Amino acid sequence: MSIFNKDIFQGNLNKNQYFEGWYFKNISADLKSVYSIIAGVSLNKNDKHAFIQIINGITNKTHYIRYDISEFYYDKKIFFITIGNNQFSKDYIFIDIDTDDIKMKGGIDYLHSVSYPKSIRSPGIMGYFSYIPKMECNHGIVSVTNQTKGELIVNNEKIDFTNGHGYIEKDWGHSFPDAWIWLQCNTFKDFKNSLFMSIANIPFLGFKFKGFICFIYHNGTFYNFSTYNHSKIKSMSYENEILHITLTNSKYTVVIKASQINGGELIAPSGGVMNRVIKESVYSDVQYELLNNKNILIDKQSGTCAGLEICNFEKL
């Protein structure tokens, strides 16, 4: 069933007002090079095309490379897509881009990848919302964390990603929300630790609600804080580029602090059209404390090279 294989392309090329994109974050072992690469399609009557977006987490420089939709290929059974000469999968990417703006070529393997758990009740990070059709924006986790191996040559500079950190996720639907927070980090002292959180205004049956999904992956265990498992947002604030959020469920509490550091401009979808400019940082700092319901500390971590987007916080 495709409900359990959300990594693959969920649409078809005849759709209108539709987008789908896969996000690959690549961090070198010394944390001095960070490149996020987004591969996707924008399907609408006036401007149907495939694209690759690139953001350099250190310089915040971004690139949007357009491809004719005929240059997009997808496998119907496994997650494997190509855009032009570029290849994307859960296990590796191969990049071959040569434009006036950027030249990038090379390959990165994703080793020891951790998958997000699936079940009938919760077939992905969205829980039972995965079963609801025509959501404005759907989210999937392809790789919670992995170890990178390989190199990219960017404008004649060789960048080694061996023994670095990788992360893969995806989105699909027709539009990003009108307001959201997105936070992701897997560069903690414990190599396999990973944090993900998203809070957004979600339109549903004619009204909107503030929904959220979050997990901490620590010592092989997922600690989930999400709307669908009756978790609560205990507190939330954003001031002077610093985000504070506390989430609770029946067993645990997570206290998160994220400091937004600079950021670059990416293009996001609205009605399937890639025309909305947003700011994303992939070099922010994050700290969290995970406690049980007796207020006993389970884990405390600090990480850098965190991905952070905060859009229209005042509407949340």
Notable characteristics:
single chain; 316 residues; mainly beta; 12-stranded antiparallel sheet; 10-stranded antiparallel sheet; globular
Structure described in brief:
The protein is an all-beta fold and 316 residues long.
Describe this structure in words.
This protein has 316 residues and is mostly beta strands. The protein is 0% helix and 62% strand. It has no helices and 22 strands. Strands 1, 2, 3, 4, 5, 6, 7, 8, 9, 10, 11 and 12 form a twelve-stranded antiparallel β-sheet that branches. It starts with 17 loop residues before the first strand and ends in a 5-residue tail after the last strand. The mean pLDDT is 97.
How is the secondary structure organized here?
Layout: E1 18-27, E2 34-43, E3 49-56, E4 62-68, E5 72-74, E6 80-83, E7 86-89, E8 92-98, E9 103-114, E10 137-154, E11 157-160, E12 164-173, E13 180-185, E14 194-204, E15 207-218, E16 221-224, E17 232-239, E18 242-248, E19 252-259, E20 264-270, E21 273-292, E22 297-311
Antiparallel strand pairs: 1-2, 1-12, 2-3, 3-4, 5-6, 6-7, 7-8, 8-9, 9-10, 10-11, 10-12, 13-14, 13-22, 14-15, 15-16, 17-18, 18-19, 19-21, 20-21, 21-22
What is the global morphology? Answer: globular
Parts with pLDDT < 50 across at least 5 consecutive residues: none
Strand content: over 45%
Percent range of helical residues: under 10%
* Major sheet: 12 strands, antiparallel
| Class inferred from helices and paired strands | mainly beta
- Total number of beta strands: 22
The CA-CA distance between the termini, in Å, is 34 Å
| Average of per-residue pLDDT values | 97
- Spatial extent as radius of gyration: 18 Å
Give helix and strand order, one letter per element, not per position: EEEEEEEEEEEEEEEEEEEEEE
